[in-house]
Amino acid sequence: MKGLEKYSAKIIVAWGEAIVGNKKIRTWLTQNGYPELGVFCFALTNDLTSRKWLMENDFPHLLAIINGIERNKTALDWLGINKFYELRNLALAADGYDKSIDWLKENHPVLGILAGKMAYVKNQIDDSNYNPHKLNP
User: Fold this and answer.
1) Domain span at residue 115?
2) Rounded CA separation 93/78 (Å)
3) What's the pTM?
4) N or C terminus of the chain with fewer C-beta within 10 Å?
5) In a domain, 70, yes or no
């Protein structure tokens, strides 16, 4: 899996738990050789400093996932052009595209689970931002 080849399935599962708010696991990842995965969790929630860190520390593919989830066509195209096909499908699946969800289920089930966790976080943010019953989230 180009872009994620250095991570074992165990680390990807841990990353998923960190994404949905497990601070203990996020801290462990950050302190045990995977700072980019911990920073990703903050970047996913629109933290600009974390997004900048990903770019400055040679993890543009991780930022492109986030931007792809947010329907940034340039990011999705960049992932495709640079042959990050799994990551492109991950972003599309996290944005709810059925074909990408099905593709991940068949080809990379662990990434399918990860996409679901990313979708959960982004949906929470969207709900907070666009829910007319919440004032000044």
Assistant:
1) 9-130
2) 17
3) 0.90
4) C
5) yes
